[in-house]
Amino acid sequence: MITVYLNDHGAGYIELQTLVIKDDWAHGVDIYGKDIRIPSTSILYIVEDSDD
Question: 14, 20, 45, 46: which is deepest, by most CB within 10 A?
Answer without folding.
Answer: 14
